[in-house]
Write the structure tokens for this entry.
Amino acid sequence: MTAAASARAEAARLSDLFRAAGGLPVEADILQPAETLLDLYGEDIRARAYVTADPLRGEMMLRPDFTVPVVQMHMESRAEPARYTYAGEVFRRQEEDTGRASEYLQVGYEVFDGKAPAEADAEVFALVAQALDGLPVRASTGDIGVLMAAVSGLKTSEARKAALMRHIWRPRRFRALLDRFGGKTPVPASRIALLAEPDPRAKAGPDMGLRGWDEVSARIDALREDAALPPISAEEIALLDAILTLRETCPNVLSNLRDIAVDLPAISAAVTRLDARITALSNRGVDVEALEFEGNYGRTSMEYYDGFVFGFYAAGRPDLPPVATGGRYDALTRVLGQGRAIPAVGAVIRPELVVDLRGAGQ
């Protein structure tokens, strides 16, 4: 059997497993409208998308995954609870790592259920673990919701918090902003001089570029307001860093986060959700005493994840991409539902990697 045929057979096996769990089989067009997808996918995927122009439908994109089109379909039906499964090719340019496939199979499972989010998280994770049972894989988990709650609880301006929130999925930019807002990075002398000018436009010269003066003026006003603010306290930054550097088993992380919540109560609700999820995972037979949790995990994956995130990786094979990934994306349903949100969580598995790992173990 060829590698492609083996991957197709594995995709069929996974699809059967997800259908048996209640997933309704659905399909998504290979060509998707690009405008919505480019707004919703992370910076990494946007840079690796295959975009083309259709004379009738406008700018289109080869689907980089299934989640967004499945959410769009679900928000039109408005059924709840609902479970879906799908299988098919996804497409991503690999300009930096040419050794990785630009077209490969995904098999996925999505759950829309607002009544018991922790149970839904555990259901999806446990089902993926079952699908990969017997393979040499390790699991990592995280929770973007904890970090988002921590940022929202900072004692600083809404503008600063919005900027940090926007760059949660870009760790380097997030750190640069945090250093600047915390006073660790000095403000450039050129900016100080600009903000000190009574009329910054007087020395600006002729209008150039795509931004009008109204936009430039608004930006200068925002910078002046920010310059007048006190820095984010060293104590609060230390608490954020404590969250980001957590790397322990789930029970130990939970204990650490409860301690942090004493000084940063904004994360208390997120910690309670984590506690409920760990209990739900344990009830489904997951060994939570050995399950890894990383405070920084998930920050370079899809930007629509806003809660539980996880991945399964080939043990001893750091050269391979994740065998499976998943997470919660409640905010995405709110965006695509025009304000109406339905809590949702899902995961995808790459069948060809499952085949490779199974063959390596034989």
Observations:
- The radius of gyration is 23 Å.
- The chain is about 45% helix and 20% strand.
